[in-house]
Amino acid sequence: MAFLSGLLSIALLSLLAGHLFHFSWLQQWQHDARVAAAVMFVLIGIMHLVTPKKLTYMIEGWLPYALQLVLISGILEIILGIGLLVENIRVYAAWGLIILLVAMFPANIYVAIKALPAPGGLPAKPWYTWSRLAFQPVYIAWVWWCVR
Description:
By secondary structure, the protein is mainly α. It has one domain (2-147). Helix content is 71%, strand content 0%. It has helices at residues 2-20, 29-50, 66-83, 90-113, 126-147. α2 crosses α5 (126-147) and α3 runs antiparallel to α4 (90-113).
């Protein structure tokens, strides 16, 4: 939900800035949604690289090389997030992010089943960890829509 809040906030701020400062390229919702996705994936990727041990608990014990997988996913989030902003590769970047989101989904299921705290110190309450699963398809749809 924090990720969705970031997506919406950045997109709406971009749209508002476009109207306030008369930047036509920031007055297009699809463009602003793409910028928001790029920013959020880059930020999340950086978090994976800066504090990887805070995320390894999501896959330790059932996937080998937990630390390396967290680092690889962070690098991919940064590269693919930036790729959303490059016209010639944005569709490929979107597909990469969609595959990454699908690949990460089992870790979110594991967190919910084991009643672990959500990443970033968010609550371990069942309503929260289970509700996070419903947002994964929303993120996938957002990424796909913003590059169509």
